[in-house]
Amino acid sequence: MLGPGPAPIDVFHPDHQPGPDGRRPPLPEPALGGRVIVHLESLPASLCYPIENSAVTRRILQELHESLLEQDWETWELKPVLCERWELEDVLVLEAAAAPRYPAARELERTLRREPGEPSSGAPRTERIHVLFGRAEEAAGGWRLAPRSAANPVEGPLEVPAADVRERLRDSAVTFHLNDGVRWHDGHPFDAHDVAFTWSLFKNPAVDCDEQRFQFLKVAGIEEVDPRTVRFVFGEQYYLSLKTVGQMTILPAHLYDLSDPDNPDHRESFTPEEQARHVNENPHNRQWVGLGPYRLSEFGQQSIEARRFEEYFDPAHAGWVDTIRWRLIAADNTAFQALLEGELDYFGRVKSEDYFGAATKTPEFTSRLYAGYFYLGIYGVIAWNLSRPQLADLSVRRALAHAFDFDEFKRTFYRGLANQVTGPFPFRSPGYDHRVVPLEYDLERASALLAEAGWYDRDGDGVADKDGVKLAIELSMPAGNVASRNMGLRFQENLRKIGVDLRLREFEWATFKQRYLDREFDATNLGWVPDLENDPEQAYHSRWAKPGLRSSNLSGLADERVDELIERGQREMDAARRAAIWRELHARLYELQPYLYNYNSPVKFALSRAVRGFQSFAIDPGYSIRRWYYPAGTPGTRPVPEGATAPIWPRAGGGGGN
Amino acid sequence: MRRLLWMVPTLIGITMVIFVAVHLAPGDPATVLVGSAGPGEVSGAADYEARLAKFRQRHLLDQPLWRQYLHYLGPFSLARDGHRWLGGSGERPWHGLLALDLGSEMHRPGVSVVEELWRRLGVTVPLSLAAVLLSYLVALPIGIWSATHRGSAADAALTTGLFLLYSIPAFWAALMLVLAFGSAGLGWLPVIGLHDKDAASLGPLAYAWDTFLHVLLPIATLTYGGLAYLSRQMRAGMIEVLGADFIRTARAKGVAERRVVLVHALRNSLIPVLTLFASILPVLIAGSIVVETIFDIPGMGKYAYEGLLRRDFNVIMATTTFSALLTLVGVLLSDLSYALVDPRIRYG
Which end of chain B is more exposed for a tag (fewer CB within 10 A), N or C? Predict the structure, then answer.
C-alpha cells in the first residue's frame, strides 16, 4: 500500500488467512496480560535518548515514554500525546532599530547555521533578534499580526510596517497546551518546566547530546507560559521544526535539574558543567523514569524489561500485555535459534534464505511461529564518485543504469518482494515520485551511450577505453552483505558485455565506513535508512560536495536546480506543496544519476502465533508492541474489567496546528 | 621469583606490540562509533566533524601514538583532566594498566572496561576451567589406556576417532550440537544463554539445574578439541616412558603392571602434558569467542570480538592484555608444575 492508511491486522497470521469465500476469520477477543519477548540486536548503554542516540533506545522508549506529539503510525499526521493541543503562529523578525517600538517584542538568541568546512571547535555563532509572533498576513505596506495562542504578548491585531520587518518565518512559533494528570513513573507530576529544562540541555555544550544537539539549535527561545503551557520560537523557517520539538525526549526535571527543589541532588548554585555532569552521569539514564504506559522493571546485561504502568494517563492508548522484554542477541543466526527455542516471540531480522528456505517451514517453526514481511523506508544505493573521470560523464552513468536488469534481480534474488526505487524518498512516502520510469535494461543502448561518450574498445582487449584510460570501476561494499555481493556479481557480468571492467571489493565495516566517508571509492554500495520525510540536503546539496568534506553527499553532486529545490522544500511548511517539490527533486536526481538507486527490500520477521494484533507500518521500527495482545482465555491473561477502558487505535483527533 | 619479575617487562613488551598493531590497523574508532548525521539534516555534517574531533580529543586519539601508549600504560593520566605533572587539570590523575584503570568503553562512556571485563570473566573463566578440568580428567585415562594397549584395534580406532575430533572446527561442532540437541533436533538441552527466560522465578536448586543444563553444550564444545590433543600427548608421553630403563627394572623386580603404569610411568609421562596447560588456557579463552557467540553467552570472548568490530581500543587492549597475562601465568604454572613432578628441575 502506498501512502498513509489503516494498517490491516495479522495479515500473515496462519489463523487469519482468507477462506474459500475470500473472507478472513474474525480476530480473537483480546485480553489483558501476558508477556512478549522482542529481539534486540544491541543493548543501549542507557535509555536517555538525548545522550544515547541509538535506534534501539528510540524503539524501547516508544513503549516506556511519550512525547508532546506523535506521528500517527497509520495516518502519518502529528497527533497530540502529552499535550491536548498546539497552536502554530508566524514569527516576525524585527529590524533592530524598530524593536523598541514594539513592547510585545521578545528578544531571543538565534543560532546561525554552521557552514560546511567552517571550524567546528568553539561555540556556534549566534545573533540577538527581536521577534513578534501571531498569525501574520500581508497587508498594505506591511503585515497584520493577530495573536492566536494563549498569553501572546501581542494584544489584538497589530499593524507592522514592512520596513520594520527583516523576515517573516511561517509557522515558527508553537505553543503546546499540556494534558492534565500526566505523571512520571515515580508519581511526580509532569509540567512545562520538564519541557523547558530538557530543551535547555541541548544548549549546554557539556551535555553529551552532540548527536542531537544540532536539531534543537533552530529553537531561538522557549517560554514556560504557565505550568500547563509552553512555547517554542524558532529562529528560522524549517519544515521539520515542529516535529523535532514535538518528538523531543523529555527528561524529568525533578531528577535531572539541579535547580529543581524536588531533585534529591538540588543545589542553590552550580555551573553549567556541573549540571551537564549531573545529566551525563545520572543513574536514571539507565533506571529510566518516563511517561509511557510501561515502566522499566529491569535493565540487565542481556535484557531490558518493562511492566505495565498502572497510573498511565491515557488508558485508551496503553498496551494489552503486562510485560515487554527486549532480549539482546547480537548474532542473527543465534537469535533465529532463540526464536525456535521459545526464547523470543518476535525477531525482525529473518534472513532471505531462512524466510524462503526450509528454516521457516519446519514443524518446529510452524507449530509456534509464523513469518511475514513489511516495508520501511530502507533502500540500497550505489553511489558513483563523480570526481572520478570515468564517472563524471552523465552518459556513462546512464549507460551503467541501463546495464543492470532490475526486474530479473528482483525476481530471482528478492523473489519479487522488493520494490525498485528511483529516488531518495521512501517508496511509500508522498515525496516519492512514482511517475519516474526506471531506465530499462538495454545493453545495446548502454553500449551506444558509452560510445557517444567516447568509451569503446580501441585495443580489442574487451574493455572500453578513452584517451588511454580503461573504463574500470571498483565497487566497494561491506563484507558479508549477501545482497550487495550478489548484485555486484550480476552487475559485473552485465558490464563485462559492454566493455566495463567492474571490480568488486569487500571491506570490513570499520574500514568500509572510513573509506566511503573519505570518498575513497569509484563506486560504493550501501543502504540508507531515511525517515518517512527526510531532509535531502546533506546527501544532495552542493554545499556538502566540497572535496575533503565528510558528508552524506557521497557522490559529490553539485547541481543548481537540485540546490534550489532542496532550499525551497526546507522552507515550505505546507505538506502537500512540499511533497510536490520533493517529487520534482526526485525526478531531477534520477535524471542526473549520481546514485544508482536499487531496491527497497522488506523487513522479514517471525512472530509467535500466540501473539495477535500485529500491524506493520512505514515508520521505524514498523510495529507497535502496545497493540499486540494475547487472545482471551490464554493462560496468564485476564479480561478487561467492566467499565475500564480497553486500548483503542489509532489515536483520535489531530488537535493541532493551524 | 625471578621468573615472576620477568613477566612484567614481557607483558609490557607484548602490550606495546599489540598497541601499535591495533592502532595501525585500518578503521578508526571515531569513524565507527560516532554516528554520522546520515542523509538528513542541515548542519549535521558540521556537527559530525565536531563530534569526531571531540571524540578523538576525549580518547586522546589526536595525540601522538607514544603519548597514547604512555596513557594506556599509566599510572599517570595524560588526558586533559590527568596528572598535573603532565599538564592535566589534576582532576583524575591516575590511569592505565599500572594503575589498574583501563578507562571506560569508547562506545559506552559510563562503563568501566575493567569492571565489565571482570564481570564477563565471571562467566568465561568458570566455563573455561570446567572445560580444562574435564579435558584433563578424560584425556589422561584415555591416553594411558591407549598407550598400554598400543597397536590394538581399539587403540587404532580410538586414535582415528580422536584425530577426527581434533580436526573439527569449534564453530561447526557448536552448530552441530545446537542442531542435534536444540529444539530443531532432539530438544533435550537449551542452546541459548546461561539461563532460561523464566529463570528469575526459579528456586535455588531449580536455578542451579537450569544453569547446569545451559552450560553442558558450551563446555562440551570447549572441551573436545583439547581433550583429543591432550590424550594424544599423554599417549605419546606414556609410550616413551614405558620404554625407559627404569620401567624395565621395575617390571624385572616384579612390580605389578598396574603399579608400574600408574605410579612409576604416570608421574614421568605427565611432564609434557602439564606443559600444555600453558597453551590450553589462552586457547580456551580464544575458543570462547566462537562458543559465546553461538550460544549467546555474555563472556569475555564475545566482549573481545564485539570490541574488535567496533574498534573500541580500550576493550581490545584490555582483553588482549588479559589474554597475554593469562599466557604468561600459564607458562609460569607449567614451569612450577615441572618442578613439582620432577624434583630434578629447580629454578633459580
Answer: C
What tens-digit pLDDT sequence spans chain B (348 residues)? 777 788 888 888 988 998 898 888 877 777 777 765 443 333 444 566 777 777 888 888 888 888 888 888 878 888 888 888 877 787 888 888 888 888 888 877 778 899 999 999 889 889 988 988 898 899 888 988 888 888 888 888 988 888 888 888 888 999 999 989 988 788 899 998 888 888 888 889 999 999 999 999 999 998 888 888 888 888 888 888 888 888 888 888 888 888 888 888 887 787 777 777 766 666 666 678 889 988 989 898 889 888 888 888 899 999 988 888 888 887 887 777 777 766 666 655
Residues from chain A contacting residue B107 (CB–CB below 8 Å): 45
Residues forming a β-bridge with A35: A323
- pLDDT bracket for residue A513 (50, 70, 90): confident
Q: Which residues of B touch A340 (CB under 8 A)?
A: 182-184
Per DSSP bridges, beta strands A165-178 and A229-234 are antiparallel
B72-B75-B78 Cα angle (round to 5): 60
Q: Give the Cα separation of A269 and A272 in Å (integer).
A: 10
C-alpha span between A160 and A168 (Å, rounded): 11
Query: Cis link prior to A621 (omega < 30° from 0)?
Result: yes
Other Cβ atoms closer than 10 A to B313: 21
Q: Are B88 and B63 in contact (CB under 8 A)?
A: no
Alpha-helix residue ranges (DSSP H) falling in chain B: 2-24, 29-33, 44-58, 65-73, 113-148, 153-167, 170-181, 204-242, 245-252, 257-259, 266-294, 300-310, 313-341
Contact A570 B42 (CB under 8 A): yes
SS3 A10: coil
User: Closest residue of B to A206, CA-based?
Assistant: B54
Q: What span, in angstroms and rounded, lies between the C-alpha atoms of A173 and A231? A: 7
SS (H, E, C) A384-397: ECCCCCCCCCHHHH
Task: Provide the β-strand partners of residue A129.
Answer: A108
Instruction: Give B182→chain A minimum CA distance, Å.
Output: 7
Task: Report which secondary-structure segment, H or E, holds A93.
Answer: strand A83-94
pTM exceeds 0.90, yes or no: no
Please report the ipTM that was assigned to this predicted complex: 0.76
CA A361 to chain B, closest CA, distance in angstroms equals 12
**Chain A CA closest to residue B187:** A341
B16 Cβ under 8 Å from any chain A Cβ = no
DSSP string computed for A218-287 = TEEEEEEEETTEEEEEESS--TTHHHHHHT-----HHHH-TT-TTSTT--S---HHHHHHHHHT-GGGTS
Q: How far is A617 from chain B (nearest CA, A)?
A: 21
Instruction: Please give the torsion angle defined by the CA atoms of residues B149, B153, B157 and B163, in that order, rounded to the nearest 10 degrees.
Output: 60
Using CA atoms, how far apart are residues B215 and B223, in angstroms rounded to an integer? 12
In the block, cell 548503554 appears at A45
Q: Which of B210, B296, B303, B313 to mutate to test the interface with A (most CBs of A within 10 A)?
A: B296
State how far the Cα of A615 lies from the Cα of A531, in Å rounded to an integer.
Answer: 19
CB contact under 8 A, A214 and B43: yes
Interatomic CA distance for residues B310 and B330, integer angstroms: 29
